[in-house]
Design goal:
nine-stranded mixed beta sheet; UDP-N-acetylmuramoyl-L-alanine:D-glutamate ligase; 34% helix; 12 helices; four-stranded mixed beta sheet; alpha/beta; 13 strands; 316 residues
Length: 316
């Protein structure tokens, strides 16, 4: 562990089974047969989605997570290794199955998820303490998904503070419903970047307008970069208190196939931009371009492109 790492991604690590097209507008019903495209198995969750996207953009990445001692855990490990990601802190849990998701996608690319939290939900403060030296050698740590890490969320403040005390900047990411504001708010004063999705932010705060949501997070002590990812409406990002930037979506370089992982890709581009010293607005545009690439292929990582091509899209 002598060489420093750009980013360590810690938390939800998933095997995704992609099923499309699924008629989500009506109940499937018992005994019904419908035809779909060939099923695809990909890696998923914040650890894989954001980790792979950052690696494709040229960052050095390692991961810290639990997987099961099973077929899916081996698939996840193999997929990350193939991307050049360090997996020394990818621990096999002795009893829990790997986290898995069936991603059901309709003809219009809307998605529903059948998710088993599994081993990912076992990650706790003791796990973070066990790998504190890895956080200390990383420039940025991404921790997520808050809302799907029940064992960690009760100690989230202590975990985030522990990581930040090593000198590593902390990024929180949410998933599912986004968790409770009671879990997230106390950790915000120790968090350098927090940009949840609009649905997750609305669930946390009870507010709808992104600027009001940002103000709410600021009121809870968030001093770093705060924002809201708003899907096809782009993103709203606040680099510092009193400053708000609207970041429109970027037109994808190919037809939209699947929006799975777009939010995680946005985060990856934003963080790589920040690591390269870009102003927040430019880094957020790189995030938007990364998300635009992501949606052009099925799954969360197949559509991702290299840094130079993604940067050209961001600036074009």
């Amino acid at each position: 562990m002598s060489s420093p790492t750009d980013c360590i991604v810690c938390g939800t690590c998933v095997a995704d089974l992609i099923v499309r097209p699924v008629p989500l507008e009506q109940p499937v019903g018992g005994g019904r047969l419908f035809h779909v495209d060939p099923l695809a198995v990909t890696t998923g969750g914040i650890v894989c989605n954001t980790g792979v996207a950052m690696r494709r953009l040229g960052a050095t990445v390692e991961v810290a997570a639990f997987v099961g001692d099973d077929l899916w855990g081996r698939e996840i490990r193999s997929g990350l290794l193939a991307e050049g990601i360090v997996v020394e802190a990818l621990e096999g849990h002795p009893s829990a199955a790997s986290s898995t998701t069936a991603v059901l996608i309709d003809a219009g690319s809307e998605r529903s998820f059948a998710h088993h939290v599994g081993a990912a939900g076992m990650l706790d403060l003791a796990f973070v303490r066990r790998h504190v030296a890895r956080f200390a050698r990383s420039r940025i740590a991404v921790v997520g998904y808050v809302g799907l890490l029940p064992a960690l969320e009760r100690d989230l403040v202590e975990a985030v503070a522990l990581i930040r005390d090593t000198g590593c900047r902390v990024v929180l990411e949410t998933g599912g419903s986004g968790g409770s504001i009671l879990d997230v708010a106390p950790a915000l004063r120790h968090t350098d970047v927090f940009v949840p999705s609009h649905d997750e932010a609305r669930h946390q705060t009870g507010l709808d307008d992104p600027r009001d949501i940002i103000a709410c997070y600021r009121g809870h002590g968030a001093a770093g970069i705060v924002g809201v990812k708003c899907g096809t409406r782009g993103s709203v990002v606040s680099p510092s208190p009193g400053v708000v930037i609207e970041v429109p979506c970027i037109v994808p370089p190919a037809p939209v196939i699947d929006t799975t992982g777009a939010g995680d890709s946005f985060l990856a581009g934003l963080l790589v931009g920040l690591l390269r010293g870009m102003p927040v607005a430019e880094a957020a545009r790189l995030g938007a371009a990364t998300a635009a690439c992501c949606v052009t292929r099925a799954g969360a990582t197949a559509g991702l492109r290299g840094y130079d091509e993604t940067l050209r899209l961001a600036r074009g």
